[in-house]
Amino acid sequence: MDIWQIDKITLFLLLFIPGFISLKVYDLLVPSEPRDFSKSVFEVVGYSALNFAALSWLIVLVHANGFPAAHPTWYLLAIIFILFLAPVVWPCLWLKLCSWPPVARRVVGPIRKPWDHVFGKRESYWVIVHLKDGRRVGGRFDTQSYASSSPAEHQIYLEEIWQLSDDGAFLSPVPYSKGMIILEKEIVAVELFGVE
């Protein structure tokens, strides 16, 4: 048996590509450790099989009664959808389903750390960062700000730094400041306030 025969390569690619795409998209959407695909082969093939099972009605439809010869463009589009587009959609649907309250109460959320959950929403906040040396840094986390995601060390870039009163009120922006990057090893806590 020669594994390099064209039919075996085609079969491998058919079983590998959709699952690989789904896992890559999922990894882009959910912060996690880098995936070792040499240890995820069964997972990849399993997701490909689920993709084919979910789209079996379409696979049967486009292979029935000479459809490929009669409608070559639609056939090609269906193959592209089955192999490349649907695998992109499945992780997005799964994450949407996980955030739906009836499901969210019954499954473990895919995002493991509160840091990733909060900053992954890409919302604007007034922020007070409490540092280990007792200082507090106040600022605005907005469209030009950034917070790292797992597995990277948690760092936060605040695009505006503000002077704080003793009771934590935001007084005024620090003149000429272009923001501040604060490293995880310096942070004790992060307070978040809504932006009006």
Quick summary:
With 196 residues, this protein is of the alpha+beta class. It has seven helices and eight strands, in the order H-H-H-H-H-H-H-E-E-E-E-E-E-E-E. The chain folds into two domains: 6-104, no CATH class; 114-194, SH3 type barrels (Roll), CATH 2.30.30.100.
Commentary on this structure:
The chain has two domains: 6-104, no CATH class; 114-194, Roll (SH3 type barrels). It is 45% helix and 20% strand. The protein has seven helices and eight strands. The strands form two sheets. Strands 6-5-2-1-8 form a five-stranded antiparallel beta sheet, with no helix packed on it. Strands 3-4-7 form a three-stranded antiparallel beta sheet. Helix 1 (6-29) crosses helix 2 (41-54) and helix 1 (6-29) runs parallel beside helix 5. The protein starts with 5 loop residues before the first helix and ends with a strand.
What is the element layout, followed by pairings?
Elements: H1 6-29, H2 41-54, H3 56-62, H4 67-70, H5 72-99, H6 101-104, H7 114-120, E1 125-131, E2 136-141, E3 146-147, E4 155-158, E5 160-164, E6 170-173, E7 180-183, E8 187-194
Antiparallel strand pairs: 1-2, 1-8, 2-5, 3-4, 4-7, 5-6
Helix pairs in contact: 1-2, 1-5
